[in-house]
Amino acid sequence: MSLRILGIMFLAVSIILTGGCLNGDDPPNPTETITPPTSETLTDTVETPEVADPPVAEEPPVVPGMNLIEPGKGAGGIKLGDPFEKVKQLYGEPDRVALDTWFYAGEFSFSGADKNVVDSIRIGLLNKKAKTAGGVGIDSTRQQVENEFGKPDPLDPDIPIPGWWDYRKKGITFKHRDDKVREIVIKKPW
Question: Which of 71, 112, 139, 149 has the fewest CB atoms within 10 Å of its CB?
Fold first, then answer.
């Protein structure tokens, strides 16, 4: 082993054994009682800087009927026939755009962007707040739907749509699975 390494090891052992007191101070006494400072022994005061209140996030505008689904008329504060500029004012930029449809976080989608006029509205699976006047919404049962709207319109034999309770004459259609509403579509009655 070289002398240099031995010297470094000796210095390290000395520091450890003296408790790090190389400046002539006595090493700390492990049995000594430490007295906490009192207000008389403290001379410095700490000033707390003033902190501004955090900015309050802007709430989205409250729109009458925001969570009301109106068959054949609208939902989510948007009416069929509204310009897409109103959708943008209320919801901001879409999360996703596909063909002529703007999608908003699995809650709403609005179709008709190619004509700049909303022609259908979908209420998605994640939107548990939107309801019809009778309380029908996502997760409602077939019985709840039929209590408000009656029996579904008969399926067109030329265009059968399994998995849907169709009320096209009223302007509303319900996609279902396991007897529960999973999606709602609002269109003009046809």
Answer: 139
